[in-house]
Amino acid sequence: MEITVNGQKRTVLPGSTVTDLVAEITDRPIAQDGRATDGQRLGVAVACNAEVVPRSQWWRTELTAGDEIEIVTAVQGG
């Protein structure tokens, strides 16, 4: 099925969750609590259809065709 991620069309499998998408994009396995299993910080936030998805809800937030997802990466600087 097709969704939009940061303005780009992307195909995901039906039944995919926000956790699945973040894991695919970051190339890191993600635990049910939304943290990387390697213990390192992910530094990302996710919004689905302009609604922020709390990290604790990533695993139960199923993506649907036409969803517009924004994944924001924290960048340190000054």
Automatic annotation (TrEMBL):
It comes from the Bacteria. CDD domains: Ubl_ThiS. NCBIfam families: thiS. This is Sulfur carrier protein ThiS. The gene is thiS. Pfam families: ThiS (PF02597). PANTHER family: SULFUR CARRIER PROTEIN THIS. InterPro entries: Beta-grasp_dom_sf, Mopterin_synth/thiamin_S_b, Thi_S, ThiS/MoaD-like.
